[in-house]
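To whoever picks this up:

The parser on our side crashed when reading a file containing two proteins. I've narrowed it down to the boundary between the first structure block and the second sequence. Both blocks are reproduced below exactly, byte for byte. First block:
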Amino acid sequence: MKNVKFMVAGLAVALICMGVAYVHFAGGGETGPSDAPTGVRRADAKAQDKATRKRVRAARIAKAAKKPVDEVVKREKPSFELDDADEAALTTEQRALIEAIRKALDEDDHKTVLALVQKLQKAKEWPDGIPLPIRRAALEAVSWIGMSALPEIAGFLGDGDKEVVADAIEAYESALIEANGDRELSAVVTAAAAVIADADAMDSILMSLNEMRPSVAVATIKQIWATGTDAAKAALREAIEFLTGEENITTPEQLDNWYNDPSGDNRDDEDAEEFYGPSQD
């Protein structure tokens, strides 16, 4: 009987040990908080971020290899169809303006479209004193033109209508997609950062830093520090940390030190010039 009790007790101990071993194995070898020093865990996180950045850049180059640089994305031109009630509320002069913008777009006369919108934005009633259908039509026109109309698109960011402002921000995001190479991408990002006060929008736009070679990303960040809105500068903190894997880079000197660090892998890839063009160095 005693032997049976010892056998049962031994079996119970064995089962408990097996359970502890399973938990240890399933939890990746840890039964509590990580025993690794903080510095080691931070180094592992930085290594993972670095690998992510490399994948982003590699994906950008691979995407470019499949798409010719001079490929043009075809989009339908805006129609400017107004509701009967909206059109009835317009003056003869305002109807003529809509018609002039429509005609210039049909003829691909972007210069005239921009001139008409600029004239509209200089009016003393701008923006909220101009009927909403007119503002929407004008924004639709310059958004269709794209990158060369960014200064005119910026004029809609102060609109009193939230949808107009959202559409203007979306126009900047569309321009990012149209950009050919990281220099154009940088131009759109810095232009957006100089005028957009929406922090969430800037979080999204600044992700494009990871699609630039490091030298261009560094120059872009410096420009945003110099001319960006408060929202852009605030969003830049997280974007810099993701790009560099470093915390507390807040000055151009610190950014240069990261880029020029001989122990890192932060400089431009040798084969990046095939897509991005000559380096800024």
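<<boundary where parser fails>>
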Amino acid sequence: MPVPKLWSKLEDAGDVTSPQLGTGGALVGSPTYEAAKFNNGIHSDIDNEGCTFPTAPNNINNDKGTIEFWAKMHYTQTDGDHHWIFAFYEVDYGGIELFFNKSVGGFKVQVVSGGSTVVYIETTGMTWNVNDLLHFGVTWDREGNDIGGGKTLLLKVNDVEEASSTDTWDTDTVNANLYIGIRHYGTLHSDMTIDNIKTFDTCKIDFSDRNDEEFLYSGPIINSDIKWYRSVNWNEGNSHGGNINLSSEIISNELGNIFDNVIDEERIMGTTEYRKIYVYLDKEVVLFNLKLWIDQSALSPDDEISICTGGVTKEDTQEDAKNYEYISPASFAEAVVLGNLAQSDYFPIWTRRIVSPYAVPWHHSTFKLLVGF
């Protein structure tokens, strides 16, 4: 199964501001939290009450993706009001919405581009009772390549296809947050309890894992699943650094040799050097609370290796790195927490070497950067 870009259990306000995966959002109004599928979910029973998550940092767009969640229903198909379940679109831009359409007594998904609905699908003949638990899976691919059968838009409820379309649409900019439990205007509340939302930047069409609160992956983590890469600019000097260079992998046994040999001038005068590297995950899994520390047991006694991860960006250079604070965690117990690392994601790390003046004759700095969770 694919790994979500955004995952929030929605059990309380903390799951909104600090979700299990992805970039956190904010509450809208004062929603309550009630029992749903797994534990609590967010309940929106009046307008201007729900939550919102940013789209860009969580890679939510109207080109391709999936949103799934559980809902405890507080109305039936005969309800006399519209109820917005999720929406991400702003007038004159693109986006997608899911809502209960009172006119047909079913659920409607619509794709918006340039402020107008360009594709929509609706369920027909569905029935359910108050307090029923329904699992929703909305998947889209504007070009119709990855869902199957040329489909571009798909709605599954309890892993059963209820509506789909093969109509395509043009790409468009998304200029809005993802709103949960309300429309982007704050109106037409969902009147349901939404639980355990997950969003993907791929097309997920198999929801057989819907009864698992978390998500499944196959196989253990092995060393080759965690890769190391150089930064784009590997030349020494203030311009060293920048984003990840996926064409320049550092083989793990070379990681302790990212600094050059210490020459006589550096040994006598002393020197401070920096290297920006990246740790990258190459497996369909999420490593929670990934930690980093340094094994300096084989390091020259006149050298010191330290690292910086806090406040580091993917764009910064050595000129920025000189002003950062560095630490030398020597064990798992002292390790710095990088955070959650998902497939194809990466963390930037600044590594600093200080060679003391009048260091021992020609020597080579050898150390190990270690990660664990």
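After patching the parser it read the second block fine. The two ends are 21 Å apart (CA to CA). The CA atoms of residues 77 and 105 lie 5 Å apart.
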